[in-house]
Amino acid sequence: MVVRRTEKLIRAPKGMEQAPDREESLKWNGLTVIQFCLHTQGTTGSFFLKDHLLLFVKSGVYTVKYRNEKHTVRSNEMIFLHKSIKVDYEKSGEPGTEYLLDYMMFYLNGDILHKFADFADWKTIHSTNEVAPVSVISVNASMRAYIDSLPSYFNQSDSISDGLVGVKFMELLFHLAEANTNLLQQLLYPYPTERSQIEQVVEENVTNPVSIEDLAYLSGRSLSTFKREFRALYNSSPLKWIRNRRLDLASQLLLESTQSVTDICYACGFENTTHFSKVFKMRFDLSPTEYRRRNFRKE
Predict the structure, then answer these.
(1) Cβ neighbours for 203, distance < 8 A, ≥ 6 positions apart
(2) How far apart are alpha carbons 22 and 27 in whole angstroms?
(3) Is 103 in contact with 62 (CB distance < 8 Å)?
(4) Crossing angle, helix 288-298 and helix 273-284, to 10 degrees?
(5) Is 120 helix (H, G, I), strand (E, B) or coil?
C-alpha cells in the first residue's frame, strides 16, 4: 500500500523507536540503529535530534532541509546530521520499485564516540574546524558490505549477546573513520566552537522540544554560564521564561486556529499533553479545552 502523509515533529531517537514504519532496532551503550521500510510516494515531517545521526538509504529518496539548505540522499548514500538541530524531511520510494523506501538510522551520542576512541586506542587531536550541521558521507564498498550484514543481527536481537552487538557497532565507527577521517575527530569536541547570541538561539528553538541543556550547547556555553547569562538578559530562569512563551503561543492558537489541543501542544514545543494541560491550567486557571470553549461562548 502506497502512503502519502505528513508527520508531526518527532524528538529523535526516542520518537523514531515508536514510529509505525519501524521494522527492527538494536541498542548498545549510546548507539541506536533503527531500520525502516515502507511504500510511499511522499511523506513529510520534521524531527529534533538529541543525538548525532547517520542516515543510510538502501532504496528510495530521503531529502533533508536544514535552514535554507536541502540535501538529497538516494540509494546507497549516507548523510550525517549533527545533534541538537531541527530538520524537515521528505521521503519517498522510487517509482520502479512500487515506491519502496528502505533506510537505516544510526544514532550516536557523545559517550559512544569516547568509548570508540578508547577501544581503538585512538589518539585524538583537537580540531580547529567545526563539523557541518548536515553533510553527505562517502559510502565505500566496505561500508555497503557492513550495512548488508546488519539484518542478521536484527533477526537475532533477542538472543545475540551485548558484547557481540558492541563489537559490531564499533565496526561501524571504524568504517566511518575510514570514509571521513576528520568527522569523528571533530565530533569528540563541542559544536559550535564560537558562542552564539542567546536571544537568537532561544528564538530559533522556542517551539522545538529542546531542553535547557540543548540550548546551552547550541549557544556554545556551559549550562551554568547559559543560565546565568539568560537570567541577566530576561530577568527569569530559562525554564520559566520558555514555558510561559510557549503557553502564550498556545493560548493564541487556541483562540485563532481550529487545530486540536494535541496538535497545539506539540506545535508549541511541549512533549506530552498531560504536562501541557497541567501547566496551561496553572497559568490561565482553565484547561486548554475550557479556555477555547469559554472564548467561543463570548463570541
Answers:
(1) none
(2) 14
(3) yes
(4) 50
(5) coil
- Between strands 86-92 and 61-66, the pairing is antiparallel
Place of cell 486540536: 260
Q: Which residues pair with 24 in a beta bridge?
A: 35
Nearest-angstrom CA–CA distance, 173 and 168: 9
Condensed to tens digits (0 to 9), the pLDDT of residues 181-223 reads 677 766 665 444 456 788 988 988 888 888 888 888 788 788 8
Q: What is the pLDDT of residue 83?
A: 84
The grid cell for 150 is: 546488519
Strand-pair partners of 286: none
- DSSP β-bridge partners for residue 44: 6, 90
Residue-wise burial string across 116-128, b where 16 or more C-beta atoms lie within 10 A, e elsewhere: bbeeeebeeeeee
Rounded to whole angstroms, the Cα distance separating 216 from 196 reads 10
**Cβ count near 140 (within 10 Å):** 11
Helices and strands, number each (H, E), in the chain: 13, 10
Domains and CATH numbers, the chain: 3-187 (2.60.120.810), 198-298 (1.10.10.60)
Q: Identify the segments of the chain with pLDDT beneath 70.
A: 1-9, 122-131, 181, 185-195, 296-299
Q: Are 31 and 106 in contact (CB under 8 A)?
A: yes
Q: Give the separation between CA 277 and CA 288, rounded to whole angstroms.
A: 6
Please give the grid coordinates belonging to residue 246: 510557549
Element of type H or E holding 15:
helix 14-17
Amino acid residing at 121: D
d(CA 230, CA 199): 9
Residues 6+ apart with CB under 8 A from 142: 175, 178
Q: Which residue has the cell 569523528?
A: 184
The set of cell numbers assigned to 149 is: 550484514
